[in-house]
UniProtKB/TrEMBL annotation, chain A:
The keyword Methyltransferase does not apply. Gene3D superfamilies: 2.30.30.100. Signal peptide: none annotated. This is U6 snRNA-associated Sm-like protein LSm3. Keywords: mRNA processing, mRNA splicing, Nucleus, Ribonucleoprotein, RNA-binding, Spliceosome. One of its GO terms (cellular component) is U4/U6 x U5 tri-snRNP complex. LSm subunits form a heteromer with a doughnut shape. One of its GO terms (biological process) is mRNA splicing, via spliceosome. It comes from Macrostomum lignano. Residues 22-107 form the Sm domain. Pfam families: LSM. InterPro entries: Lsm3, LSM_dom_sf, Sm, Sm-like_LSM3, Sm_dom_euk/arc. Binds specifically to the 3'-terminal U-tract of U6 snRNA.
UniProtKB/TrEMBL annotation, chain B:
This is U6 snRNA-associated Sm-like protein LSm2. It holds the Pfam family LSM. Keywords: mRNA processing, mRNA splicing, Nucleus, Ribonucleoprotein, RNA-binding, Spliceosome. One of its GO terms (cellular component) is Lsm1-7-Pat1 complex. It comes from the Eukaryota.
Length: 110, 120
């Protein structure tokens, strides 16, 4: 029983030493980088990550939102129509709409 | 973190975009821990996406129906935001680590006393 408690505290010490890369750490590393955020309802955002929390609420700067809608041409078949909205200043994004967050190299152009 | 961030924005003009695609521009009157929003002096932003609420000047918006809040760029110090987010991430990580260690230690102690009783 004592051995189990020892190993638990040893694990905690190892965790703080190695600064284990959990998913939240990976997002933390992306602060002040341009990130690609995929959201519900076929929406994507691309902007500079300024803040986030455990709910994945985020503040993005200089973001560009892309909404993908399907427009059906009656003469031909389906067409995919993309609408791009530009949100230049600062945007707060509520976390419950976020699906994934991915870093993009800052040098990449749109 | 975002609760205190919004508290610094009280009195500023923002545009709230809801999950049902409606956009409302107004002055942030108050905010709470759930990020519910009170907006004063409502005005139109996107004519098509704006609901016909000519009678209303003030509204309460439940935090869970918000999709975006558009803020003026000169509102917050981005460096300060990033530092606060970093701290928040470290804090929640250490809280999770101590919680799991405490749970593991508590489980080990409980298992130990149970084994003791079984031996007797």
């Amino acid at each position: 029983c004592l051995k189990v408690m020892e190993s638990a505290s040893r694990q905690q010490a190892l965790a703080s030493l190695a600064s284990i890369e959990e998913p939240m750490d990976l997002i933390r590393v992306s602060l002040d980088e341009i990130v690609h955020v995929k959201m519900r309802n076929e929406r994507e955002l691309r902007g500079r990550l300024h803040a986030f929390d455990s709910h994945l609420n985020m503040v993005l700067g200089d973001v560009e939102e892309t909404v993908t809608t399907l427009e059906i041409d009656e003469e031909t078949y389906e067409e995919v129509y993309k609408a791009t909205k530009r949100t230049v200043p600062m945007l707060f994004v509520r976390g419950d709409g976020v699906i994934l967050v991915s870093p993009i190299g800052s040098s990449q152009a749109a | 973190l975002f609760y205190s961030f919004f508290k610094t924005l009280v009195g500023k003009d923002v545009v709230v975009e809801l999950k049902n695609d409606l956009s409302i521009c107004g002055t942030l009157q108050s905010v709470d821990q759930y990020l519910n929003i009170n907006l004063n002096d409502i005005s139109v932003t996107d004519p098509n996406k704006y609901p016909h609420m000519m009678s209303m000047k003030n509204c309460f918006i439940r935090g869970s129906v918000v999709r975006y809040v558009q803020l003026p760029a000169d509102e917050c110090d981005t460096v300060e935001l990033q530092n606060a987010a970093r701290k928040e991430a470290m804090q929640s990580k250490s809280v999770a680590a101590t919680a799991s260690a405490a749970a593991a230690g508590g489980g080990g102690g409980g298992g130990g006393t149970g084994g003791h009783g079984g031996a007797h």
